[in-house]
Amino acid sequence: MYSSKISGVGHYVPENVVTNDDLSKVMDTNDAWIQERTGIKERRHIKKGDGNSTSIMGVKASKIALERAGLTPDDIDMIVFATLSPDMYFPGGGVQVQEMMGMRTIPALDVRNQCSGFVYSVSVADQFIKTGMYKHVLVIGSENHSGGLDFTTRGRGVSVIFGDGAGAVVVSRNEREKGGILSTHLHSEGKHKDELALQGPATQHWVPEIIAANDQENIPYYPHMNGQFVFKHAVVRFSEVIKEGLEANGLTTADIDLFIPHQANLRISQYIQHKMKVADEKVFNNIQKYGNTTAASIPIALSEAWEQGKIKDGDLVVLAAFGSGFTWGSVVIRW
Ligand SMILES: CC(C)(COP(=O)(O)OP(=O)(O)OC[C@H]1O[C@@H](n2cnc3c(N)ncnc32)[C@H](O)[C@@H]1OP(=O)(O)O)[C@@H](O)C(=O)NCCC(=O)NCCS
To answer: Where does the Beta-ketoacyl-[acyl-carrier-protein] synthase III C-terminal domain start and stop, copy by copy (predicted)?
Structure first.
């Protein structure tokens, strides 16, 4: 068996900054409420006409990741693209990236695991590298949430939290004897599928049905979130799956050099940090600037942390995510 490593990281966020005060102009909310409950100060939203989309942002992030890995699009053997907000119902973002980057007829796989999408995708890439089937897998998390949120007071419990952006990494065969991606751990619990969900358009809520009902009060194509329920489950599952990852490698929380949680909510990150007793400088959060960018949040954070020199060779980096499904997972990396 081979082992894999992350050989390049990149991210892209749209230029358009939307502050909490901007949101309070279109719905009944305020900066104090949002900051107190989520830690978010601002987020980025695609502006109509700025040339961005989920797959285009994915390409922008990927180009940076490839350059930092010292690779060209021809070197990539597979694309894994995670998003819950694709440009089109089908086909998925993977083939769009393959086309836009002029890649060979390599496989393009789309992963639909919402906030855990990136962690799931890294795990998929890791398996293909381990078996020796591929050498370089491009993993992308990208989201255009702003195109699909309810920016009225009715949707405020959800729409203030989410933002747009993309992150990408190249997962490559590890030529060194040690280190790299040590292990990945994935879980799901479908009985909670309705607690954070977007019902339509889909085959259960097909477009003609939605148009015919035209019910302005019960709109299944905006996301629904049972916030407190999600919060309670998130803190438990995050902690479990981090512990699982560390124990599988004979490590403890004291060994962590950098913990990058999915940027769900700053209060969730802080809760887990305190539970694990990890020092502030060992946890990377940027939700304050970008909100929750779902599948993009970990790779954006990873890329920013790397740019800021917070990840050095030999560091133990732990990634963990939780989200709709529910699904959750962790990745333990010796950088
Ligand atoms: C969403 C979340 C911030 C809401 O915080 P909360 O303390 O649970 O708030 P509640 O939903 O109980 O709402 C409390 C009140 O604030 C109001 N409220 C909701 N959103 C608001 C907003 N954006 N601005 C102002 N008030 C708001 C509610 O209407 C409610 O008012 P009421 O008491 O008059 O009925 C919180 O539950 C949370 O972060 N959950 C986890 C979400 C998450 O991480 N999702 C991503 C998972 S990957």
So the answer is: 246-335
- Residue nearest (by alpha carbon) to ligand 1 atom 26: 29
Exactly one of 262, 265, 285, 286 is catalytic; name it: 262
Number of domains in the chain: 2
Angstrom distances, CA of residue 272 to CA of 14, 117, 281, 302: 29, 20, 14, 18
CATH code for the domain in which residue 160 is found = 3.40.47.10
Last residue of a domain, one of 174, 201, 233: 174
Spatial distance between the Cα atoms of 168 and 82, rounded to a whole number of angstroms: 10
**pLDDT tens readout for residues 215-259:** 877 778 889 999 999 999 999 999 999 999 999 999 999 999 999
* Helices (H) then strands (E): counts for the chain: 11, 13
Global pTM? 0.96
Q: Which domain holds residue 146?
A: 3-174
Residue ranges lining ligand 1, Cβ < 6 Å? 29, 33-34, 37-38, 115, 156-157, 160, 225, 227-228, 230-231, 234, 264-265, 268, 292, 322-323
pLDDT in tens, 171-228: 999 988 889 999 999 999 999 999 999 988 788 877 778 778 888 777 788 899 999 9
> What is the token pair recorded at 160?
């203030």
Same domain for 316 and 219: yes
